Amino acid sequence: MRLYQGIRRLILSFFRKILFLWVRTDVSGNSLEALDLNPEKPVCYVLQYRSLSARLVLEQEVIRAGLPGAHHQQPGEQAPERSFFFLYKRIGGLFQGRRHKPVATGEFSELVRFGLEHPQTDVQVVPVSLFWGRSPDKEKSLVKLLLSDTWSVAGRLQKFLIILVHGRNTYVQFDTPLSLQDVISEYRDNEARASRKLARLLRTHFRRTRRAVLGPDLSHRRTLVEGLVRTQAVKEAIETTAREQNLPPRKVRMKAYKYADEIAASMSVVTIRVMERLLSWLWNRIYKGIDVNNIEVAREAAQDSAVVYVPCHRSHIDYLLLSYVLYRNGLMPPHIAAGINLNMPIVGPILRRGGAFFMRRSFRDNPLYATVFNEYMHQMFTRGYSVEYFVEGGRSRTGRMLQPRPGMLAMTVRSFLRDHRKPIVFVPVYIGYEKVMEGRSYLGELRGKKKQKESVLGLAKTARKLGNSFGKVSVNFGDPIALDQVLDQQHPLWREETYPEDYRPDWLPGVVDHLAESVACRINAAVAVNPIGLTATALLGTERMAMDEGQLIRLMDQYAALLRAYPYAGTVTLPDGAGRDWLAYCENMGLVVRQPQKLGDIIALEGSNAILMTYYRNNIQHLFALPALIASLFENEDSLRRDKVAFLASVAYPYLQSELFLHYPADGIETVIDHWIDVMIAQGLLVQLDNDRIGRPDEGTDAMLRVRILARFIIQTLERYHIVLGILRKYGSGKLTAVELEEQSTLLAERMSILFGLNAPEFFDKTLFRNFIANMQKNGVLEADQNGLLCYGEGLQQVAEDARLVLSVEKRQAIQQITMMNA
């Protein structure tokens, strides 16, 4: 018997070596840590269908990863004879795949029998999924049906051809093991029912994994486009447009067809594979690595739901990077909503084949286009495609999260209301760059330079930068948001109502706004803190953007410790190493300068880098918002009562929350503030005094320097608020409209930026003033009369008086003098 097994293993080893002369694999989950295997328990790997090639690949990957062997007998006296099995055996001849009801293999039955006979011995059952090429099926494509690893089971000849064509693009996924005893324990006296339960769990697992990796079946693009024009909603829009514009219906129908053709993606697996190779080369050339965190969230959501990826938008690279990360981690790239400006010659067709569908910037005045686009999105969601769009609309030029634009979210919610059989899950994604490629052009735009229109020539100019290093990139997946749960919370009776195609319920805008805020907050809660952001935050907190090297290193270590002492969210990631490593890294990137000095080198920001670094500081500003707000209250006061600190901070919090998308609920913020006070006392940033008073450290101490610099992280934001309050008080109640107040505030902020040398471009950002004024109206601080003039009461006067706690005398006087000159 041993001689037979030895010869058999030798033959299989020979076949494996022959197979891997051609086959190349990408593998995920093949480590003891990822699988969390217990070395004291036997391990069995399970593949779905019997296949010699699949077994050989499994054995090879197990050997490579140093996992318990897939072709050896298990150790121990009471252990299964084999450490792998197939769930189902193939039925059919040489040229047939499986055509009948699945039949369990003998090995599977033996494993169940072993578990029932040896209840004291548990077995870790590890499902392993294998894909020969990850190309989703395209209907009416005989070549793809023959040569793709799809949802059907391939016959032997077809499998040989698949390996021949796709063997160099093979994907293997090891998944979390099942406990055999946990599965079969309730059926100790019934082997048949125990077998059915284990088979059902494994079958469900394989189906969910296959769906996440391959995605749903793709319809032929031409069929999809023609189907859109035949939907009832588009037919009615064609009739309405023809009647209103006095055009022949046939002509309007052709226009609708052109709209659908302009919009629809044409995802090509060949293009995706070529792009994957090209992007691997590109990322290795310009980046020092891509860190991916918490991708299990996306993997789990993709198994049962239509996934909507909602990343922040920092760069045009975002489109490519997220699709690349998903594909490399065994998930089907999403269909991506792209602006029509990217549908350029050469580039547009490539993006379309990579999954991009194109949309016009505005189609409010074109009901026919709007209907076609809505129906296209509805097709995406009901068929279970994953979709990606940016809730910010455009790229952030300041490094902050922009106010969400609700259009795409509203389309998603309306589609789900029409047909909610397929769950929709939003997966927030934070993409963080240590050095954004468009950084210099952003500076120009913030200084008033006209935005450059995208073109092939512009991309060619960008390509010249490829010799530069842009540091590392982080792709962090945030906590998912299930749309049905949001609707249950916001409008519990939504399932009982009917929703025609063009129906927009009155409660929809409120739900969409809530959803938009939740998405933005969860993107920010998945932020990746990097050395560039920490260095920028510390240096920009100084008056002259320069600091002694040793002091700067200590400061970064202390602020990182502050983030660890009270973590903002479990999805936030911090950099490895310490302050000295981060400074050396930042210096190597050319973002800071060193000025040698006998008493100790000075690290400084100079020239355009001083403004550029505000971008990277703004990436993480929200993490320090609350401790910085508390510290700012001690700018001009030695001590305050603890309840006064909590009150003042809680009054300012709703405005900071709206601007920075902080995830703490406003109704429980005093508890969070109280916790932060305790943390700051423990860190030496504040001092506990008698009579429930909180004091700042003594002047001239290192602790006081830390408090003062920490306060500056948020003071410019508070100064902006007080500019608005100052203008309101000088003009008086009922004298200005919201638009006039916004304009006056922007001009004053721009003037102060010049007078005081403020480098933050967002200091005079009109949209931030607009948001603050809108929030004061929302919170009842301001009210607009019948003429649109803003009125306020005594409460605003008290809030303005509290400015003395935060603003320096110099800036208070500047605001007062300028507002008096313009009153």
TrEMBL record:
The HXXXXD motif is essential for acyltransferase activity and may constitute the binding site for the phosphate moiety of the glycerol-3-phosphate. The lineage of its organism: Bacteria, Pseudomonadati, Pseudomonadota, Gammaproteobacteria, Pseudomonadales. Its EC number is 2.3.1.15. HAMAP family: Glyc3P_acyltrans (MF_00393). One of its GO terms (biological process) is fatty acid metabolic process. The keyword Transferase applies. It holds the Pfam family GPAT_C. One of its GO terms (cellular component) is plasma membrane. This is Glycerol-3-phosphate acyltransferase. It comes from Marinobacter persicus.
